[in-house]
Amino acid sequence: MPNCIIAQSGGPTSVINSSVVGLIRANEEFKIFDKVYGGLNGIEGILNKNIIDLSQISSEDIDTFRLTPSSGLGSCRYKMKNIEESTEEYDRLLDILKSLDIKAFFYVGGNDSMDTTAKLGKYAKENGLDINFIGIPKTIDNDLMYTDHTPGFGSAANFISTAVLETYLDSSVYINNGIFIVETMGRDTGWLAASACTARYNGKPVADFIYLPEKAFNVEDFLCDVRAKFKEQNQVFIVASEGLKTEDGRFLSEMNVISQDNFGHSQLGGVGQHLRQLILDAGITTRVKALELGVLQRCAMHCASQIDIDEAFNAGYEALKYAADGHNGYMVAIKRESNSPYSTSFFLVEANKIANNVKYFPKEWINEKGNGVTEEAYEYFMPLLNGVPTLYRTNNVPQYKVFTK
Amino acid sequence: MPNCIIAQSGGPTSVINSSVVGLIRANEEFKIFDKVYGGLNGIEGILNKNIIDLSQISSEDIDTFRLTPSSGLGSCRYKMKNIEESTEEYDRLLDILKSLDIKAFFYVGGNDSMDTTAKLGKYAKENGLDINFIGIPKTIDNDLMYTDHTPGFGSAANFISTAVLETYLDSSVYINNGIFIVETMGRDTGWLAASACTARYNGKPVADFIYLPEKAFNVEDFLCDVRAKFKEQNQVFIVASEGLKTEDGRFLSEMNVISQDNFGHSQLGGVGQHLRQLILDAGITTRVKALELGVLQRCAMHCASQIDIDEAFNAGYEALKYAADGHNGYMVAIKRESNSPYSTSFFLVEANKIANNVKYFPKEWINEKGNGVTEEAYEYFMPLLNGVPTLYRTNNVPQYKVFTK
Predict the structure, then answer these.
(1) Other C-beta atoms lying within 10 Å of the C-beta of residue A130
(2) pLDDT band at residue A32, thresholds of 50, 70 and 90?
(3) What are the respective helix, strand and coil percentages of chain B, to the nearest 5?
(4) What is the distance in angstroms between the Cα of A226 and the nearest Cα belonging to chain B?
(5) Per-residue confidence (pLDDT) for residue B253, from 0 to 100
(6) Cβ within 8 Å, pair A173-B74
(7) Chain A residues touching B12 at Cβ < 8 A
(8) ipTM
(9) Which of B129, B128, B153 is nearest to B139 (CA)?
(10) pLDDT tens across A101-132, in order?
(11) Which chain A residues have a beta carbon less than 8 Å from that of B277?
(12) Cα(A36)–Cα(A41) distance, rounded to whole angstroms?
């Protein structure tokens, strides 16, 4: 029996390892391949023959690995040259795969990884090689085309939703509260920031305003929003995407020098700090705080979404079956069959259609004033947050397992 | 039957409401008081007669409230004048309590709240009033004297531990990783930062260095630590307290003073960014990131410690019994009876001994180089992190209940 290999690429998520485990478990069930190899640190590691045999790992370790955040096989941001430029890397990689009798290559990643998958699939086919390349989607940004959503997003959204609700309550305890700004990730798209609309108290969204990159940021409108709301309720809760841009396309975060310290260092802040400074400068109140959720959005497994973990698992599981059926150069995608009860199915999209493409947050889900999202957005997000995982624990902290340490 | 009242003060924690519920449940059991009133927004709200009857709340809402972060009765940072200056507020407050036939007053808070408790207890006694004032400890900072630890700390430590482990894994996925800095709260003491020593992978602490306010920060030593470790493992993981100070007592972040609260406490931030800039300026690497955990440390109920929730509950429960026994002007404190198996008991400390006092992280638990903590510290922290709560959920997000919204 031939073998297969799986590797991870790009930024981590909480559920990227679940996809690897889905593939391992599917192979145990269907016995398609003799061994499931794991390429450490993506293409970069495979080119250095940094490969392990995942079939030899104990079932207990695989189960722990499934509930481990971060790319447990290691990751890379390695971009292969275009075939027209040079085929050297392609030939070297395929030689390594051939030497291990590998007939299927699975790459878990986002747009760039799908670019790699498409290029490799095309090159293999053109050279008459019997190796199938299949992409498995992964990104907290939810910005891949054709798929209803991406594994990784639901867990990020679950953390954002919970953290927004908790910080809202925390910032509401005094008689005179202030303005609280939560900054989410999302350099190009507003999916993560928008998902904060699911944070609700007594059925009402706790965020007074949500600002997305899909809508040009206007300082006057922003200050007008905030001033009026602060006057009305003596408290404002704001969610903003790190990717906010002005009308002329400049990132707010790049205009941002807050202060200089005693050593003359410029203190660079993110979007949250920038908005905070705008509010302070406008004299609305001095009580303004900003919190950047940062990488916790992509690694807070302790607050991941069980639905997301399961879907990531199933994406890996289906990928194995698709490869067994002889598909090459495709990415596994998710179709939402029904919202209530929530159900999905999987299908294939050509990987080159995903590569270098971006799915923006729909304009029609942004409210008229451009400072919030509609109930249609809420209906889309809600089923993706279902349930949190029960983690394995050792000495009272989560027990995790990666293969690079 | 007379009544009692409970109120919350100072910064929120994840378990401050659990203490209120412990008191309510104890009163249901022992039937000491007719009604348990809740003073909204602490002393400040009570002086405005902003008082609710907690005995009338449904048991279901009380259960939800128990697992709700933030001060669900509202909080204040109100400092009463010294009795020598003016007794006007004292008289007004006692008149309000008398009008409601209140015979016991419970204040859940930290040092400042124990100051208030002590003053009120003393004034009541001096004026022959039959009202007992009992303090219930609460602070994530763990900086109250005499008590082994404070309710609220274990949950903050649990979140820090988990977040440190998860961000460590997240920051370790590439072949060339960088330097990651996690900034914890802890203006005066290093308990929170030190608790990061519980974050372990394969039994080994993931933080290479932990810097505490109890040890003067030396830039040269810091850069020497970081440079050597980076050379050794091409990756460094640092945990730093927001309260780091130089030899001459200046806060590293004092250039970032945002505002001062009514007690004259400076609001600090930005130590992580400051350390990042030091590393960049020293040319060790350009790959340096800093993450401020911020208020999530005190409100991340989704990652709270069940032991902490239970101890907070029991502190409220015991407080009621102590008041019934006629004690006045005391704070309920925790004694650690045994570490393994972990067990505790409660006792009373005079509130004025707690007020305006600080329990520092023990110097003997800081390692020789001043850049980490000892295994004794680990043994102290570990039992405080036991278990996470199962939260009530509505529409896939945690269901919380406060009485100020």
Answers:
(1) 12
(2) very high
(3) 40, 20, 40
(4) 20
(5) 83
(6) yes
(7) 169-170, 173
(8) 0.96
(9) B153
(10) 999 999 999 999 999 999 999 999 999 999 99
(11) 261, 263, 265, 267
(12) 16
- Mean of the per-residue pLDDT values of chain A: 94
Asked whether the beta carbons of residue A172 and residue B200 sit closer than 8 angstroms, the reply is no
Is A75 in Cβ contact with B174 (below 8 Å)?
yes
In a domain, A127, yes or no: yes
Tokens 């205009």 -> residue: A255
More confident residue, A241 or B257: A241
Neighbours of B345 (CB within 10 A): 12
Q: Tell me the C-alpha distance between B251 and B5, whole Å.
A: 39
Nearest-neighbour CA in chain B from A355: distance (Å): 22
* Partner-chain residue, chosen from A76, A170, A405, that has the shortest CB–CB distance to B70: A170
A198 and A385 in contact (C-beta within 8 Å)?
A: yes
Domain that holds residue B131: 3-139+303-356
The β-bridge partners of A102 are A3
**Placement of tokens 């005066």 in the chain:** B188
Question: What tens digit of pLDDT does each residue of B64-81 get?
Answer: 999 999 999 999 999 888
Residue B386: band (very low, low, confident or very high) from pLDDT cuts 50, 70, 90: confident
pLDDT score of A96: 97
Cα distance between residue A207 and residue A239, in whole Å: 6
Peptide bond into B389 cis (omega under 30): no
For residue A236, what pLDDT band results from cuts at 50, 70 and 90?
very high
What CATH number is associated with residue A11?
3.40.50.450
Which two structure tokens, joined as six digits, stand for B25?
Answer: 């449940």
Most B-contacting residue of A397, A399, A400 (CB-CB within 10 A), to test interface: A397
pLDDT at B263 over 60: no
Catalytic positions of B, please? Answer: 141
Task: Report the binding-site residues of B for substrate.
Answer: 139-141, 185-187, 242
C-alpha–C-alpha distance, residues B332 and A65, integer Å: 43
State residue A116's pLDDT score: 94
In a domain, A346, yes or no: yes
Give me the mean pLDDT over the B132-158 stretch: 98
Q: Do A166 and B299 touch (CB under 8 A)?
A: yes
Beta-carbon count within 10 A of A331 CB: 31
| Residue B281 with chain A: CB contacts under 8 Å | 263, 265
CA dist B388 and B300 (Å) reads 11
Scanning B58-175, the segments in alpha helix (DSSP H) are 59-66, 88-99, 111-126, 153-170
Helix spans in B288-342 (H): 296-299, 306-324
| Residue matched to tokens 């997301």 | A308
pLDDT value of residue B90: 95
Query: Could you tell me if residue B239 is inside a domain?
Result: no
User: CA-based Rg of chain B, rounded to a whole angstrom?
Assistant: 22
Number of domains in chain B: 1
What's the pLDDT score for residue A79? Answer: 86
What is the pLDDT at residue A54? 98
pTM listed for this prediction: 0.96
Tell whether omega for the bond before A341 is within 30 degrees of 0, i.e. cis. yes
Between B139 and B253, name the one with better pLDDT.
Answer: B139
Higher-confidence residue of B396 and A234: namely A234
Token pair listed for A56: 């030899």
Q: Which chain B residues are closer than 8 Å to A259 by Cβ?
A: 255-256
Catalytic residue among A112, A115, A141, A225: A141
Q: Is B69 close to A201, i.e. CB distance below 8 A?
A: no
Average pLDDT over residues B210-234: 97
Confirm whether B135 is domain-assigned: yes
- Choose between A144 and B83: higher pLDDT: A144
Report the alpha-carbon angle A200-A205-A209, nearest 5.
140
Contact assignment for A163 to B398 by CB distance below 8 Å: no
Q: How far is CA A160 from CA A199, A371, B152, B155, B167, in A?
A: 8, 18, 22, 19, 16
d(CA A163, CA A168): 8
**A383 part of contact set with chain B, CB < 8 Å:** yes
Active site (annotated) includes residue A310: no
